[in-house]
Amino acid sequence: MNSNKKAPAGGQTAMVTQKPKNTWTAIKRLTGYMKKSSLLIVFTIIAAIAGTVMQVYSPKMLGNATTIIFDAIRQNTGIDFSRLETVLFIAALLYGGVFIATFLQQRLMVVVSQKATYALRNELKAKMNKVPVSYFDKNSNGTLMSVAVNDIENIVTNLQQSLTELISSIILIIGISWIMISINLTLALVTCVMIPGGLLIMKIFTPVTKKNTKAYFKSLGELNGQIEETYHGFLTVKSFNGEKTAIRQFGQINAEMYKAGWRSRFVSGVMFHCIAFLYNIIYVVIAVVGAVHVISGTILIGDMQAFFQYSTQFSLPFTKFAQLWGSILSTIASAERVFDMLDEEEMAVYKNEFPNNDAETAKVVFDRVNFGYKAELLMKDFCIEVQDGQMVAIVGHTGAGKTTLINLLERFYEIQGGGIRIDGKDIRNFSHKALRQRIGMVLQDTWLFSGTIYDNIRYGNENATKEQIYSAAKAAYADDFIEKLPAGYNTILNEDADIISQGQRQLITIARAFVSNPEILILDEATSNVDSRTEMVIQRAMKRLLKGRTSFVVAHRLSTIYDADRILVMDNGDIAETGNHKELLAMGGIYADIYNSQFEQKSV
User: Among 324, 55, 33, which residue's Cα sits nearest to residue 164?
Assistant: First the structure.
């Protein structure tokens, strides 16, 4: 979001954050998640410095051993084994120290990276609970899951592998540069050509690698979405012989993912080999110039041997960095996708209270409400009043605005004018949690999560006692079939809850609503997918649930709302007709047309 964006009217507190615009912005933001591990990072740097110093000094010690042996042979004197043993012992200690320091670096960085992504994962989960429903309408489940799982896993994997190498490589370059200069300045300058040459090569290849890496993860999200949709609706796919279409769609996305993946890895590989080729050229030049210096006596042969080792070590950070750069770009691409989600606009939170009407006697009031999903308004000056304990049915053709009315009452979407009040208080003055504690919902599409039937019922009220759970199940006429299951209330349901029928799933959701004990109840036709006998059971359960509560019933079957206190007939986002069943039939309008069409269908 733009940092200079104005706060919405009415005192809304808008979330203002800066989206990552480039590589360095994303890196800076990602490192912010490591601040809590600052002490561990300091220890990691200390271990890296200690290990690098020992690694840098090791070739020098081996060079001294070579000089001792070479001088003894050239001068035809005996080898000073005591001195040689001391030098070799020190070299062994140095290599052992390098091993310990490397182990500590790896161990510490694993903790740092895991803590960083732990915080990132928690923040992302919390964010998903704060974004409006419209965000989920615009983004597929596959894309969201890909970001939450694949991208964060990619970040943690590359962080713990890349950061250690990066820290060690930087310190190693500094240490080796210093000791090579102390041996011979000319050879050191020749070796340092590696730095600008390597940076130039990476600058050339980076844009292509980054572009294809982002395309790869985008395709991965689309692929996850396509797989999820196909598997979730496999019965529909089979029924309409849609296998070929599903396979074709999968093949297209998979081909795009393949192209982006191999291009990204191919370019990273080419970059690595170009840097290796540059090093080989420099190595040949070092060998020629070094040989001249050895012959002229300006460099001891042991120092020249050490310099060759240093030049090899000097090239290693660059070749490693060339390999790591692809992983780093992959991490940045994943981080940017995560940050894009974290920067999404949250559900509106208002600082200033909206006008209340404490003298209002109605339970729910829609007062001149304006709303539209796009620029064009669907509802204009929409007004209704619902009294406490009334059952209000909402009917109308598809697209008339039935679901919109419910979404606005639940604040799944924010109104653009007017006000909605419960007990005289504007719903925008409630927190989202406080508002939804007062409202219960039983939807046409039953939703049960993986877990026991007991836990699914308790989802309506986490503080409910066993007695309340059992009472809710009995009130919903669900206890009979639950007790007949092998594990009773402890029966485990999978995601689709396919071990129980559609009607039984609906009874569990009604029991869940009983447990939540809401003041206001929203029912979206809960009997359209069940047989007549089950429908009668569900109807009895819903009548129990509705008793004494203010309710909004979205009706598809008019037979379920004959006894409603009031029926609203929606058309183009407004109330076209209102009254009870008999009054609306007598009008001979939209309600009568819908009723007659359903009656004719039954007759046929």
Answer: 324
Q: pLDDT tens digit string along 206-248?
A: 778 777 777 887 787 778 777 777 766 666 666 666 778 878 8
DSSP H helical ranges for 382-501? 402-409, 432-437, 453-458, 466-475, 479-484
**Averaged pLDDT of the chain:** 80
Joined tokens for residue 6: 């104005």
- Give dist(CA 59, CA 170) in Å, integer: 19
Residue pair 331/155 in contact by the 8 Å Cβ criterion: yes
Compute the distance between CA of residue 95 and CA of residue 212 in angstroms, rounded to an integer: 40
- The two three-digit tokens of residue 79, written as one number: 């080898």
- Nearest to 206, CA basis, from 328, 317, 318, 315: 328
Q: pLDDT tier at 445 (50, 70, 90 boundaries)?
A: confident
Q: What is the mean pLDDT of residues 399-415?
A: 87
51, 102 contact by CB (below 8 A): yes
Distance from C-alpha of 35 to C-alpha of 98, rounded to nearest angstrom: 27
Instruction: Kindly give, in sequence order, each residue whose CB lies less than 8 Å from that of residue 128, ignoring residues fewer than 6 positions away.
Output: 144, 148, 341
- At residue 443, what is the residue type? L
**DSSP code for 32:** G
Q: How far apart are CA 496 and CA 321, in angstroms?
A: 47
- What stretch of H or E contains 426? strand 425-426
* Residues 178-216 pLDDT 10s: 878 887 888 888 877 777 777 787 778 777 877 777 788
H-helix or E-strand containing 71? helix 38-74
Three-state secondary-structure class, residue 474? helix
The per-residue b/e assignment along 565-595, b for 16 or more CB within 10 angstroms, e otherwise, is ebbbbbbebbbebebebeebeeeeebbeebb
DSSP code string of 135-191 = HHHHS-HHHHHIIIIIIHHHHHHHHHHHHHHHHHHHHHHHHHHHHHHHH-HHHHHHH
pLDDT, tens digit, 9 for 90 and up, residues 482-530: 998 888 999 988 766 667 888 888 888 888 888 888 899 888 766 555 5
Sign of CA dihedral 282, 284, 288, 294: positive
Contact between residue 515 and residue 457 where contact means Cβ atoms under 8 Å apart: yes
Q: Give the span between the Cα atoms of 221 and 435, in whole angstroms.
A: 34
User: Could you say which DSSP state residue 396 is in?
Assistant: -
Whether the Cβ atoms of residue 478 and residue 538 lie closer than 8 Å to each other: no
pLDDT at position 421: 93
Closest CA to 132 of 348, 378, 428, 437: 348
Per this entry, what is the length of the chain? 604
Instruction: Identify the three-state secondary structure at position 260.
Output: helix
